[in-house]
């Protein structure tokens, strides 16, 4: 599942009041602002993406007039729509394009579907609508490379839009007019972006100390709690839950931002149900933090540290399949047992039950696909 997102529309307020709402949105992780008046001032507030009908906008808007109330030119012949023509021209000019459509009848639904293959984003504004038009548009555009954004007013509206037809919209947009509202909707979007992995219990069959290799510590910008770590393994289809260094030890101080992840060739799960090699991770990359229930959240890599260390091989079996991973051979490196307790690799032995994730699909360049690939 792709991460959900939120954009804001600035309220019809004087600049100083508008500025406070934009700043709160930025602090809440929302960096996309639809504003038709103050784009230059907004850019000075931070690294912001402007959505407007100006030529230098980061995302060029069609289907909205200078008053911001939507001006779709709709005729019985959709091919004659001036907004359809404007979208095609903007795309031909190399712009990233967003269409803004008020859904008031079936023709507007049809226009949205027509615009889908042309634009990059579609903002859908409901007037008196039920959820049905949104469902129809999502269904019609599910195989089209376009991001669907629903206009909402509050957290409940955001939750409904993001869950419609299970997949939901890709994002939401709202008029930012209250500090609490901004934070609540940002929080709802964050919750909707979290996927859950079904963790299985595998049985350790072999523990074998090895020589030295290059292993990777992944330092994130988040503080992890006991019970959290990352999905890591030698095979992209099967990974162990490797515990964070959030526990105190008589040997070293806790490093709750860190997962001592394994050797450079190992895979780590990242957002979008994709994997990366540990050796590829650099500051600013996204990784998934996973807890013992398989619940996830996204974190950023602050640093990836590669050092030469002694390694240990852990082999386990699940339903007749053997899975393996290599980790640093040290008491402070832990996987997770069947009772959700951290298990040091120094104490791991055949017969121990541990948490793993098994992917049904094969992977090609880190993306799950329906293909037979043998990893051993």
TrEMBL record:
Domain (3-dehydroquinate synthase C-terminal) ranges: 202-376
Protein EC: 1.4.1.24
InterPro entries, A to Z: DHQS (IPR002812), DHQS/DOIS_N (IPR030960), DHQS_C (IPR056179)
Disulfide bond keyword on record: no
Catalysed reactions listed for this entry: 2-amino-2,3,7-trideoxy-D-lyxo-hept-6-ulosonate + NAD(+) + H2O = 3-dehydroquinate + NH4(+) + NADH + H(+)
The UniProt record lists the keyword Thylakoid: no
Ranges for domain 3-dehydroquinate synthase N-terminal: 3-187
Entry GO MF terms: 3-dehydroquinate synthase activity; dehydroquinate synthase activity; NAD binding
Coiled coil residues, start to end: none
Keywords associated with the record: Amino-acid biosynthesis, Aromatic amino acid biosynthesis, NAD, Oxidoreductase
Biological process terms in GO annotation: amino acid biosynthetic process; aromatic amino acid family biosynthetic process
PANTHER family in the record: 3-DEHYDROQUINATE SYNTHASE, PTHR33563
Function per UniProt: Catalyzes the oxidative deamination and cyclization of 2-amino-3,7-dideoxy-D-threo-hept-6-ulosonic acid (ADH) to yield 3-dehydroquinate (DHQ), which is fed into the canonical shikimic pathway of aromatic amino acid biosynthesis.
Stated family: Belongs to the archaeal-type DHQ synthase family.
Name by which UniProt lists this protein: 3-dehydroquinate synthase
The organism of origin for this protein: Methanobrevibacter millerae
């Amino acid at each position: 599942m792709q991460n959900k997102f939120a954009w804001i529309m600035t309220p019809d307020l004087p600049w100083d009041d508008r500025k406070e709402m934009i700043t709160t949105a930025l602090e809440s992780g929302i960096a996309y602002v639809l504003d038709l008046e103050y784009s230059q001032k907004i850019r000075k507030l931070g690294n912001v993406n402007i959505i407007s009908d100006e030529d230098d906008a980061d995302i060029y808007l069609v289907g909205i007039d200078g008053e911001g109330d939507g001006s779709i030119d709709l005729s019985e012949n959709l091919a004659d729509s001036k907004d359809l023509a404007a979208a095609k021209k903007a795309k031909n000019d190399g712009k990233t394009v967003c269409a803004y459509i008020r859904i008031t009848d079936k023709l507007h639904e049809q226009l949205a579907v027509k615009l889908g293959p042309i634009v990059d984003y579609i903002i859908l504004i409901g007037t008196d609508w039920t959820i049905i038009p949104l469902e129809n548009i999502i269904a019609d555009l599910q195989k089209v490379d376009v991001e669907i954004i629903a206009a909402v007013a509050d957290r409940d509206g955001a939750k409904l839009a993001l869950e419609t037809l299970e997949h939901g919209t890709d994002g939401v947009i709202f008029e930012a007019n209250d500090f609490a509202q901004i934070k609540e909707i940002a929080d709802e979007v964050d919750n909707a972006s979290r996927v859950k992995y079904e963790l299985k219990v595998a049985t350790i069959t072999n523990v074998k100390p090895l020589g030295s290799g290059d292993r990777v510590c992944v330092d994130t910008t988040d503080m992890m709690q006991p019970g959290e770590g990352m999905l890591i393994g030698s095979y992209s289809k099967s990974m162990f839950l490797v515990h964070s260094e959030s526990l105190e030890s008589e040997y070293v101080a806790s490093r709750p931002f860190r997962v001592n992840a394994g050797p450079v060739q190992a895979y780590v799960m990242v957002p979008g149900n994709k994997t990366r090699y540990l050796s590829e991770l650099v500051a600013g990359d996204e990784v998934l933090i996973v807890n013992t229930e398989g619940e996830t959240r996204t974190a950023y890599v602050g640093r990836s540290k590669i050092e030469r260390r002694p390694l240990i091989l852990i082999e386990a079996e699940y339903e007749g399949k053997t899975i393996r991973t290599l980790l640093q051979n040290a008491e402070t490196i832990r996987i997770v047992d069947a009772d959700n307790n951290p298990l040091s690799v120094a104490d791991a032995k055949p017969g121990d039950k541990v948490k793993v994730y098994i992917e049904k699909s094969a992977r090609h360049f880190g993306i799950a696909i329906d293909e037979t690939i043998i990893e051993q």
